[in-house]
Structure formats: C-alpha cells, structure tokens
Amino acid sequence: METQSTLTGSKPFDSTDFLVVSAKTFEDLRIGDVFRAPSRTLTDAHAAAFQTVSCDNHPVHYDAEWARKHGHTAPVVHGLQVLAFTAPGATLFPHYIGEVFVNFSEVSCQFLKEVHAGDTLYPALEITDLIPQGGTGVVVTAATVHNQHGDLVLSGQHKYILRTKNA
C-alpha cells in the first residue's frame, strides 16, 4: 500500500524531498544573499563547556579576579567559540545548498571586541563573491558577529566549494 502526502495527497512521501527550504545550486546563489544564525545569549556554562573541549585553560577565560587585574571587565569568552557561531551549520546555508556542498575550504577572522557571559550574539554569513571553476565554484562569505549593543565583535571570511551544474 502506498502512502500519500498529507499535504497534497498526490504523491507518496519521500524523505529525500523533506527539506527545510528548497535547495539551490551554485548558479542560484547571489552576491548579497544573507544567511543568519539564531541569536544566542552566552552563559558561564557555554564558556566552561568550550574550555573543557578546547583544553584552553588560560585564566582570562575563567578567573574573574585575574581578568580584572589584567584590564578586562570579566572573563573573556574564547574567540574560537565566538567564531564557531559562524559555522555554516549554525545558519540555514547548508539547507539552501543541499547536496552540492563539497567542502568548507577556508576561514579567517579578526576578534574586534571582547565577548563575555551574558552577551547575546547575532552571527551572519553574507555572500560577497561567487567564483565559477568548471565543475565547482567557490562561495566567499563575509562572516560577522554583532553583540546586543550592535557592536561588531567578529569580522571574517569563509570560503566553500560547491559543485556546479557542469559537474
């Protein structure tokens, strides 16, 4: 017995067609497309979990007195943790590109302002360049993270390789 779609009633359900958004190809992407991640308010627990995973035990990240003594208002969230919020999987980007993803080839960034537990972060990726290369294409994005005050705390760039229609 075939089951029919509960939405249209016209065709059998196929889990490979169950997409969050309609997938695009490299050729469908446009400079200026923006892929946001949900905002996140960092807690001491987030910082402690990252410290455990990264094995970064510098006291600037957990010792409030040490941080104050060295000019910080509070322990500083790990920069790589802030960068992690720009991971493509933290946004809708992988859903838009579907099965054409080949790899995440490059990342760079500048840490512009300190981030502390209690800050809310707003990460985004914006396509700044699309470079066709035959069977693949390079998608270049600006990676940004703002805090709850509108301050840009991280600015960077990601590059991804996608298959093109010529692949």
From TrEMBL:
This is MaoC family dehydratase. Residues 31-143 form the MaoC-like domain. It comes from the Bacteria. Coiled coil: none annotated. It comes from Spirosoma soli.
